[in-house]
């Protein structure tokens, strides 16, 4: 089972990351000590970026930086525009400048996203650790760090973050259960993996993926009856699921094939031991000759 959720996750985070000016008081205090938007460049840049016109947005954010070179939000906004247009080195440089002006959990997380796309997992983890030092309650960053540790196959660290996410969730966090179950399965802790996938199924009983993942775990546990029951449930919910059909058919054939009879053991011929030679009897001494 592979995980393929990172690009969509990053896109969702990215599209919500632009900062307008003047923005809310909370945003200003968190991201910048510089107020105002001379020339309106920041707000125009945000409008262009939200329409995915990143080249125009970069021009506006660059003008905003010229007007207010000590304002970190303009570097953050330009960095995000660079990132979304695929210019990763430029994005990383701007996030670094924003952090130097005012360290922010958001900018550490955003720079980690760039490093993940560059497949630099150690640097990404370092930035995610710093982001969580600044803001330990940032669930999005914790989720991203857990995912990064999954990629590193550092199962225990990934599980620790998913534990925090699941514990703090107001309702069942199906995504976190799925990925923690994957980590447990990778560690061959099958009972714990099955428990997480069962919790997924309880929360979303019509989602076939929970049954599929639990079926894999049951097979690893050699509990084929339960595995086949989950595969049949998948086909009940989605009758044309080719993978479930093929796997179930294979398992049913194996279950119907009798195990080959054991050949009786060939008796070992006993070899009669040769009789031991009789002990020699010493002849009696001659009787004395009568006188």
If you had to describe this structure to a student in words, what would you say it looks like?
The protein has 291 residues and is mainly α. It has 15 helices and no strands. The protein has helices at residues 6-15, 25-31, 41-50, 54-67, 72-84, 88-101, 105-117, 121-134, 139-151, 155-168, 174-186, 190-203, 208-220, 224-237, 242-256. The longest helix has 15 residues, at 242-256. The chain is elongated and about 95 Å long. The relative contact order is 0.06. The model is unreliable at 1-15, 22-33 and 283-291 (pLDDT under 50).
What is this structure, in a nutshell?
This protein is 66% helix and 0% strand. The chain is mainly α and 291 residues long.
Rg on CA atoms, Å: 35 Å
Give the number of helices: 15
Overall average pLDDT: 85
Note the main sheet: none
SSE topology:
Elements: H1 6-15, H2 25-31, H3 41-50, H4 54-67, H5 72-84, H6 88-101, H7 105-117, H8 121-134, H9 139-151, H10 155-168, H11 174-186, H12 190-203, H13 208-220, H14 224-237, H15 242-256
Descriptive keywords:
291 residues, mainly alpha
